[in-house]
């Protein structure tokens, strides 16, 4: 039986993380680097992602690479994969974390907005994974993790573009898992409401909305970026070597409302 240190040893493993300039992506990069991994951080925000890569390398002493990448542009994704192989020579795991969605009511979207949401939240993850597959297949316990959302598996008419794209992502991951058998593992996180700074406000959440959600959460707090990073590390690790094609829900127990009538 392996020790906990052996199960979570990412030495010589190269991990690509998309959306790595955000709160969750950067925390995942920091944690996985602290466990020995070579981390490739990719994000549309070039200055921020490169600075985070430099900071993490200084903190942990393990090599990093920071690259600007637009995950709606297949050519840029190809460049990311090529640069990763040139620097590290292997790809052991992928964290498809990039994604974003605005508060858009059900009947207030249109074709362009729906397609744009799909390109960013679903198609970008597909293309990055597809391009990494030849390298992942060469690795022991290769694993890919996807950042899903609770809006992707529950009715969410307030976020119709984002929720529809995330719903498609979940089934895509299941398909990848059954098609890849023992070669590569694929799993999703169903992420609840996370305190990720300004991103919540940009997505249309007001403080009143956040407070109302927190009141109903079983653990009575929003998630922290490290809560999600720890779950990602688990699914990538040898501790999860017999887990594929599933969704791990990380949401503080969810929002509970009693089924009993109140007086």
TrEMBL record:
Keyword Ligase: no
Keyword line: Oxidoreductase
InterPro entries: NAD(P)-bd_dom_sf (IPR036291), Sc_DH/Rdtase_CS (IPR020904), SDR_fam (IPR002347)
GO MF annotation list: oxidoreductase activity
Matching Pfam families: adh_short_C2
Family of this protein: Belongs to the short-chain dehydrogenases/reductases (SDR) family.
PANTHER family recorded: DEHYDROGENASES, SHORT CHAIN (PTHR24321), ESTRADIOL 17-BETA-DEHYDROGENASE 8-RELATED (PTHR24321:SF8)
Protein name: Uncharacterized protein
Naturally occurring in which organism (per UniProt): Psychrobacter urativorans
């Amino acid at each position: 039986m392996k020790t906990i240190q052996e199960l979570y040893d990412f030495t010589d493993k190269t991990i690509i993380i998309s959306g790595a300039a955000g709160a969750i992506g950067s925390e995942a990069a920091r944690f996985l680097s602290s466990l020995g991994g070579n981390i490739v951080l990719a994000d549309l925000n070039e200055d921020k992602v490169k600075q985070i890569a430099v900071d993490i390398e200084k903190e942990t002493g393990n090599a990093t690479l920071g690259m600007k990448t637009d995950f709606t542009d297949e050519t840029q994704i190809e460049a990311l994969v090529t640069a990763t192989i040139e620097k590290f020579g292997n790809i052991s795991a992928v964290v498809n974390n990039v994604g974003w969605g605005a508060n858009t009511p059900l009947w207030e979207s249109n074709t362009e907005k729906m397609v744009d949401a799909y390109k960013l939240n679903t198609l970008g993850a597909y293309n990055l994974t597809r391009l990494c597959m030849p390298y992942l297949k060469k690795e022991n316990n290769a694993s890919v993790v996807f950042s899903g959302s609770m809006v992707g598996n529950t009715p969410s008419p307030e976020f119709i573009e984002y929720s529809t794209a995330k719903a498609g992502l979940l089934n895509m991951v299941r398909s990848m898992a059954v098609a890849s058998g023992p070669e590569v593992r694929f799993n999703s996180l169903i992420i609840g409401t996370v305190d990720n700074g300004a991103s919540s406000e940009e997505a249309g959440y007001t403080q009143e909305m956040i407070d109302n959600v927190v009141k109903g959460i079983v653990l009575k707090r929003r998630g922290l970026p490290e809560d999600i990073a720890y779950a990602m590390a688990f699914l990538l690790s040898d501790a999860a070597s017999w887990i594929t094609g599933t969704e791990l829900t990380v949401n503080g127990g969810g929002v509970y409302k009693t089924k009993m009538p109140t007086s």
